[in-house]
Amino acid sequence: MEEQSKKVIFSGIQPSGNLTIGNYLGALKNWVKLQDEYDCYYCVVDLHAITVKQEPKDLRRRTLEILAIYIAAGIDPEKNTMFIQSHVSAHSEASWLLTCNSYVGELSRMTQYKDKSSKYGNSTSISAGLLNYPVLMAADILLYQTDLVPVGLDQKQHLELARNIAERFNNAYSPTFKIPDPYIPKEGSKIMDLQEPLKKMSKSSDNPNSYILLMDPPEVIKKKISRAVTDSLGIVKYSDEQPGVKNLMTILNTLTGETFEDIEKKYEGQGYAKFKEDVGIAIVNELEPIQNKVKKLLEDKEYLEKIYKAGAEKASYVANKTLRKMQKKIGFIPVAR
Ligand code: TYM
Question: By CB atoms within 10 Å of each CB, which of 99, 102, 125, 168 scores lowest?
Fold first, then answer.
């Protein structure tokens, strides 16, 4: 009963690559913080991952690994609903219904679509899934009558679109969806690439030195941080003129809670070596216990199966209620029972 009075959170991560510390600090770490206050649905969004080509066995491996990471990071399976998107068919169904209430114009204006599709050169080989991807994301969110969506800054535009699609549907038929709000953390919502600190850190980058993976071994993490691009000023200062240093300070701040002022004072007159070493240590301190838990969890596939099965059952029940409403309002004849 208590759960019904709680507000609802929905969020997800794509198993399209190995998770980075950007995914962790921008999203997952906040999910853990919010879990007690909200009724949370945390999803591994495998349907989203196939908008770009995936090797089937890698997709399977990463899907389970992400579920294990959710649990290892501290999301309590007893209190939260964790599931795999493709196990709840309502997501695909609702996505079609919303696709018919979305415009090609608004979808092709999405920054992420423009970035990703520009890599393919000519439009005949761009997957339609890449264009429709934010509609599927809207379906994910709206099916659960979600209040709050904790994401990194790069998803803000998709969330605004989800709100617009919801409002349009509500106006065309009658109130059906709650209008969700984004939850974007003040710090850590955009962790930058370690080699090109004006670019977002991304799991799809070709250069492994540009990101820290959640499952990178401690020595690799420390080495990548020591190689992170900074500048020739040699001053630890939180400034837009020093994007590399600013990014490392942000990582340190989100992990240890030290303020930017404190960090500046602590490393005054010392150059970058000790500062970088400490950033590396802070990351390892946070990730190592998670990595050990992930490894243990992945040895117990039965346990993981129990969690995603129960998650899909609970999620299907809630999602189907909204889906039936949508179908009825659109004018479909209910399935005879
Ligand atoms: P995805 O899988 O690209 O990323 C998962 C989450 O990590 C955040 N993130 C970052 N945060 C800070 N710094 C970075 N460098 C960084 N890179 C990624 C993302 O903002 C995201 O919160 N479309 C979504 C997945 C999705 C979803 C949803 C999210 C599908 N349906 C419904 C919320 C609600 C995506 O591709 O995220």
Answer: 125
Give distance in angstroms: CA of 224 to centre of ligand 1: 23
Tokens describing residue 208: 């492994």
- 3-class secondary-structure state, position 84: strand
| Report field, pTM of the whole predicted structure over 0.85 | yes
**137 CB under 6 A from ligand 1?**
yes
Q: Which helix (H) or strand (E) holds 40?
A: strand 39-44
Question: Are the CB atoms for 49 and 203 separated by under 8 Å?
Answer: no
pLDDT tens per residue, the chain (337 residues)? 444 589 999 999 999 989 999 999 999 999 999 999 999 999 999 999 999 999 999 999 999 999 999 999 999 999 999 999 999 999 999 999 999 999 999 999 999 999 888 887 767 788 899 999 999 999 999 999 999 999 999 999 999 999 999 999 999 999 999 999 999 999 999 999 999 999 999 988 899 999 999 999 999 999 999 999 999 999 999 999 999 999 999 999 999 999 999 999 999 999 999 999 999 999 999 999 999 999 999 999 999 999 999 999 999 999 999 999 999 999 999 999 8
Ligand 1 mean position to 151 CA, how many Å? 6
Q: What are the structural domains, with CATH classification, of the chain?
A: 2-189+300-330 (3.40.50.620), 208-295 (1.10.240.10)
Q: Is the CB of 162 under 6 A from ligand 1?
A: no
Single-letter residue type at 134:
P
| Most ligand 1 atoms within 8 A of CB, residue of 28, 144, 155 to mutate | 155
Tokens of 88: 């709840």
